[in-house]
Design a protein that fits this description.
The complex is a heterotrimer. By secondary structure, chain A is an all-alpha fold. Chain A contains 11 helices and 2 strands. Chain C is mainly alpha-helical. Classes of the chains: A mainly alpha, B alpha/beta, C mainly alpha. Chains in contact: A-B, A-C, B-C.
C-alpha cells in the first residue's frame, strides 16, 4: 500500500517535472509534452527492435534525440511567436495533435509495443511484492530532483536558467541570450519527458492515448502543486499519487481519474494558484 | 482629520523588507510627494494602498474606512484612483474608448446608458481637459499608436473620469520632455483647486517640489524623512540617501 | 477575394474617363474619424456597407436550399462548428484562452440528452434548458480559474473534458461508453436548417454588436490590461464570468442541437475534435474578428468532409493548419479580405 502509493507519486512527479521545468524557465507551456512522451517510447522501441541496438544505447540516444527535437521545436516554431501566449499555446497544442493523431493514423496501436524492463524480478517490501523497475522509478525521481537542484544552483547554465526565470530583461543585459536558454530549457524539458517515458513505459504498453493521459496527469499535478514550483510538484504528486492508490484499492481502478479531477476542483476552490504557486492573482513587484 | 491614514504598513518579499513599518497621514486637498531611490519601496507602498498587494501588516484608512483586504476595484470605486508607472492602456481600443471603461465603473454609473456612443461625448470632454486636441484625430486613434506623452495623459484622464477624490500618480513625469511636463503641471494644479488630494511618486524633484505641499522620503523600505519641500531639500540624510553624496 | 475583385472591376468600368479624376478610397468619406462611426450620405454608401453582410447570408441560404440532403447535413455541422469557433473567439477576445470548447459542448449535449431520454421532453424545451443550464454549469465549474492570469484557463479547460470523458467511462453513468441513443429527432431537415442557420447569424451579429458597445468594450479592455481595468473600478471577475457564461451558452446550445440532430449523446462529445476544430477555424479565419472564425469553419468543415476517407488523418490536418496559420499567417482570411475591401478605391472628379 505504502510502497505502491509512493511509486504512483514518483511516476506522477516524473511526468510533471519536464513540463514544469520548461514553463518555469521560459514561460512556454509545452502542450506537446504528452506527444513527446509517446514519441520517445516509440523511438526507443524502434531503435531496439528495428535497428537492433542494445537497450541502454537506444535509451540514451532517444533522450538526446528528443532533447534536440524539443530545442528545434522552439527554434523554428515557438521562437517566432514568443510572447504571444495565445499563439504559443495553440502552436504547441497543434504540434501535440499532429504528432499523436499521426501516430494513431499510422497505426501504432496494439500490445506488441512495450519496452523491456531494466531489471526483471520483484522484491518483498512491507508485505507487498514490488517489481524492481517500480523501485527504480523512485530512485530515479530522487536522483533527478537532486541533479536538477545541483544543476540550477551550482552550474553556470543552471544559474542563467534561474536568471531568465526571474527577470528576462535584466538577464538580457547580463549577456544571457534568452532564446538560447529557452531552447535549452525546451530541450531539457523534452529530454526529461523522454526519460520519464523510458523509465515508466516498461510497466505497460505504449499507446497513443497514453500521450493524452500523460498530459492530463502532468497538468493536474502542475495545477494542484502550483506552476513553476518544483516542491509544489512533489507535494502534489504525493497527494494525488496516494489518493489514486487508495481509490484504486478500496473502490475500483477506473475511478482514479476522478480523483485527479476532484483534486483539481478542490484546489481551484480553495487556492487557485496551487499549493505552492508563485502565480499570485494580481501582484506586481516594485 | 486626514483623508488617508496609513499606519505601520509592512511588506516583505522573501526576506527583503520592501516596505518597513511606514505610517503617513495624507490631508485632504494637499499634494503629497513621495521620493526615494529606485527600489526603495515606493511602488509597493502604493500597491498596498490600492489593494494590488496585501500587506503583511498595517492599516490604511480612507475617511475612517479600512481599505486593507478590499479588492482593487472596490478601493477604486471608493474614490482612490491610481495611475501606473508603466503605462499600458487598452491597446486595441481608440483613445476615447479607453476612457469609457472607467466611465462604466460603479462609481460613475450615475451617467446613464450603456449602448452605442452614450458616453463618447463625456470621454471626449475629459480627453480635451488633459490636452488631447479636440478637433484633431488624436482622440480617435488606437491607443497602440499614441506616443508616450499622450499615454501618460490618458492615465490622468482615466483618473479624472473616475471622479477620484485621491489621485495616486506613480512617476507620471518619467520619460516626458520638459515641455510636456510643464503642460501637465497646470492640469494637476487645477485638480488641486477642485479639491482633490494627490499623491505623487516622482523622480523629477524640481517639478515636484514646486507643487508639493508635503514630501516623504523612502530609503530601503523605510520612511526616513517627512516635511515641507524646503526642509527636505536641506536635509543632510536625504541628500545622502538620495544622491549618494557623502557630506 | 473574388467578391472584392468583382466589385473593383465594376467600379473601374463605371468611371472609364480618367482625365481630371483622382483615386479615392471608398470608405474615406464613410468612416468619420474612427472605424466604427459611419457618416452615410448616399445609397451607394449604404450598399457598400451592407454588401459584405448581406451576400454571405443570402448565399448560405440559397446553398442550403438547393443542396442535396448529404450536403445539407454538412452545412449543419459547419454551422455548429462555426458557432463553437465564434464562441472561442469571443472568449479569447475577453482574455480567456479555451482549449476545451468540447467541455461546454459536451455539457450542453448531455443535459439535452438526459432531459430527452429520462424525462421525454421535446427538443423545443430541452435545447433552451440545456443552453442556459449548460452555460451556468460550465461557468460555475470554471469560476475559480477566472481569477488566475496566464495559461491556467487553457490548462484547466484542456483537461476537464478529457477527465469528464474518463469519468463517464468509469462510473458508467448516463449510458457510459455507449451513450444515450434513440433520442427524438427534429421533425424535418428544414426545421433543423432554419434553427441552426438563424442561430448562427444571430450569434455572430449580436456578439459583434455587443463587443463594440460601451458595455462590451470592457471585455476587450480586460484582455488588453486587466490591472488597469481594475484600477478603473471594474470588477473584472464579474465581467469575465459573464463572458464565460455567454461563450459557454453558445457552445451548450450547439451541443444540445447536435444531440437532437444525431439522436445521440455520449462520450464522443468530449473528444478533441470539438476543441481543436474551432481553434483551427479561428486561426485560419483570423482571430479577433468573430466573423473570421465563422468563415474559417465554413472553409474547414467542407474540406474535412472531402477528406473523410482519410479518417483520423483529418485531425492531423487540423493540427497542421493550426500550427502553420498561427506561426506563418497570423492575419487570417477575414482580416485579409476586409483590408482589401477597405482599400478599394474609386475615381473622383477633381474640382
Amino acid at each position: 500500500m505504502f510502497v505502491y502509493g509512493l511509486i504512483n507519486s514518483a511516476v506522477l512527479a516524473l511526468m510533471a517535472i519536464g513540463f514544469n521545468l520548461t514553463f518555469g524557465i521560459s514561460g512556454v507551456a509545452n502542450f506537446a509534452y504528452g506527444a513527446i512522451y509517446v514519441v520517445s517510447g516509440f523511438l526507443t522501441w524502434s531503435l531496439i527492435n528495428k535497428l537492433n541496438m542494445p537497450y541502454p544505447v537506444s535509451a540514451i540516444s532517444t533522450i538526446i534525440i528528443i532533447g534536440i527535437l524539443g530545442a528545434l521545436i522552439y527554434r523554428f516554431i515557438i521562437k517566432r511567436i514568443r510572447g504571444l501566449v495565445i499563439s504559443e499555446v495553440i502552436a504547441t497544442f497543434g504540434i501535440s495533435i499532429v504528432i499523436l493523431e499521426f501516430l494513431r493514423y499510422v497505426g501504432f496501436i496494439g500490445f506488441k509495443y512495450s519496452l523491456p524492463m531494466f531489471i526483471t524480478g520483484s522484491v518483498e517490501i512491507f508485505d507487498a511484492y514490488v517489481d524492481i523497475q517500480r523501485l527504480l522509478i523512485i530512485c530515479f525521481v530522487i536522483l533527478l530532483i537532486i541533479a536538477l537542484y545541483i544543476f540550477t544552483h551550482h552550474t553556470k547554465i543552471g544559474r542563467a536558467f534561474r536568471g531568465i526565470a526571474q527577470e528576462e530583461h535584466t538577464s538580457l543585459s547580463l549577456g544571457i541570450n534568452p532564446d538560447w536558454i529557452a531552447s535549452l530549457s525546451m530541450g531539457l524539458g523534452s529530454s526529461l519527458g523522454a526519460f520519464a517515458a523510458i523509465v515508466i513505459l516498461p510497466l505497460g504498453t505504449i499507446t497513443v492515448d497514453g500521450g493524452y493521459d500523460v498530459l492530463i496527469n502532468a497538468l493536474s499535478v502542475c495545477i494542484v502543486g502550483g506552476l513553476g514550483s518544483t516542491f509544489g510538484i512533489i507535494i502534489a504528486s504525493v497527494i494525488i499519487g496516494y489518493a489514486q492508490t487508495l481509490t484504486a484499492t478500496y473502490l475500483a481502478p477506473h475511478w482514479t481519474m476522478i480523483v485527479s479531477l476532484l483534486a483539481i476542483l478542490i484546489i481551484l476552490v480553495f487556492k487557485p494558484s496551487g499549493i505552492l504557486g508563485h502565480q499570485k492573482e494580481l501582484e506586481e513587484r516594485v | 482629520m486626514a483623508i488617508l491614514e496609513i499606519r505601520n504598513l509592512t511588506k516583505s518579499f522573501g526576506g527583503i523588507k520592501a516596505v518597513d513599518d511606514v505610517s503617513v497621514d495624507v490631508h485632504e486637498n494637499t499634494l503629497l510627494g513621495i521620493i526615494g531611490p529606485n527600489g526603495s519601496g515606493k511602488t509597493t507602498f502604493v500597491n498596498m494602498i490600492t489593494g494590488f498587494i496585501r500587506p503583511d501588516k498595517g492599516s490604511v484608512r480612507f475617511k475612517g474606512k479600512e481599505l486593507i483586504g478590499l479588492t482593487p476595484y472596490k478601493i477604486t470605486n471608493m474614490g482612490i484612483g491610481r495611475a501606473f508607472q508603466m503605462v499600458k492602456p487598452f491597446f486595441h481600443l481608440p483613445a476615447f474608448k479607453n476612457i469609457i471603461v472607467p466611465l462604466s465603473s460603479d462609481r460613475v454609473k450615475a451617467t446613464k446608458g450603456g449602448g452605442f456612443g452614450d458616453k463618447d461625448a463625456i470621454a471626449l470632454d475629459i480627453l480635451e481637459e488633459v490636452g488631447f486636441e479636440r478637433g484633431s484625430s488624436v482622440p480617435y486613434k488606437t491607443a497602440s499608436v499614441l506616443p508616450h506623452g499622450y499615454l501618460k495623459r490618458l492615465e490622468l484622464a482615466r483618473l479624472i473620469a473616475l471622479k477620484a477624490e485621491v489621485l495616486i500618480l506613480d512617476e507620471l513625469f518619467s520619460g516626458l520632455s520638459i515641455a510636456e511636463v510643464t503642460s501637465i503641471v497646470p492640469i494637476i494644479e487645477k485638480l488641486l483647486v477642485e479639491g482633490k488630494t494627490i499623491i505623487m511618486i516622482e523622480h523629477r524633484l524640481k517639478e515636484l517640489f514646486r507643487i508639493a505641499d508635503n514630501v516623504i522620503v523612502f530609503n530601503f523600505g523605510k520612511k526616513i524623512k517627512e516635511g515641507k519641500p524646503k526642509e527636505i531639500l536641506e536635509d543632510e540624510e536625504v541628500k545622502k540617501a538620495y544622491l549618494g553624496v557623502e557630506v | 477575394m473574388l467578391v472584392a475583385a468583382g466589385l473593383n472591376l465594376l467600379i473601374k468600368k463605371r468611371d472609364m474617363a480618367k482625365e481630371n479624376y483622382r483615386k479615392e478610397r471608398i470608405d474615406r468619406c464613410i468612416k468619420a474619424r474612427s472605424d466604427d462611426i459611419y457618416a452615410i450620405s448616399s445609397k451607394n454608401e449604404i450598399l457598400y456597407l451592407l454588401f459584405p453582410r448581406v451576400i454571405p447570408i443570402a448565399a448560405l441560404g440559397i446553398i442550403a436550399l438547393i443542396s442535396p440532403l448529404y450536403w445539407q447535413k454538412v452545412i449543419i455541422s459547419a454551422c455548429i462548428f462555426a458557432m463553437l469557433a465564434v464562441s472561442w473567439d469571443f472568449l479569447s477576445s475577453c482574455g480567456m484562452l479555451s482549449l476545451g470548447q468540447a467541455l461546454f459542448f459536451g455539457i450542453g449535449s448531455y443535459i439535452a440528452g438526459i432531459l430527452n431520454h429520462y424525462l421525454n421532453l421535446p427538443f423545443y424545451i430541452t435545447i433552451p434548458v440545456a443552453t442556459i443550464s449548460g452555460g451556468l454549469l460550465s461557468t460555475i465549474l470554471l469560476l475559480p480559474v477566472v481569477r488566475l492570469r496566464g495559461i491556467y484557463f487553457a490548462m484547466v479547460t484542456l483537461i476537464l473534458p478529457l477527465m469528464l470523458m474518463r469519468g463517464i467511462e468509469a462510473t458508467r453513468i448516463f449510458g457510459g461508453n455507449e451513450g444515450i441513443t434513440g433520442l427524438s429527432p427534429f421533425p424535418n431537415i428544414w426545421v433543423e436548417l432554419i434553427i441552426i442557420i438563424t442561430a448562427m447569424w444571430v450569434t455572430l451579429f449580436a456578439l459583434r454588436r455587443f463587443i463594440s458597445s460601451d458595455y462590451g468594450l470592457i471585455f476587450v479592455s480586460i484582455r488588453d490590461n486587466d490591472r488597469a481595468t481594475m484600477a478603473s473600478g471594474i470588477n473584472i471577475y464579474a465581467f469575465k464570468a459573464q463572458a464565460l457564461f455567454i461563450g459557454s451558452c453558445i457552445c451548450a446550445f450547439c451541443g444540445a442541437f447536435m444531440t437532437h440532430s444525431y439522436m445521440f449523446t455520449g462520450i464522443p462529445v468530449f473528444t478533441m475534435e470539438f476543441s481543436i476544430l474551432p481553434i483551427a477555424a479561428s486561426a485560419i479565419g483570423g482571430i479577433g474578428s468573430l466573423a473570421g472564425p465563422l468563415l474559417g469553419a465554413f472553409v474547414l468543415v467542407p474540406l474535412s468532409e472531402i477528406l473523410r476517407e482519410f479518417g483520423t488523418l483529418r485531425v492531423v490536418f487540423y493540427g497542421l493548419v493550426l500550427v502553420i496559420c498561427v506561426v506563418a499567417l497570423p492575419e487570417g482570411i477575414f482580416h485579409y479580405l476586409s483590408r482589401k475591401y477597405n482599400e478599394m478605391e474609386r475615381w473622383v472628379k477633381i474640382e
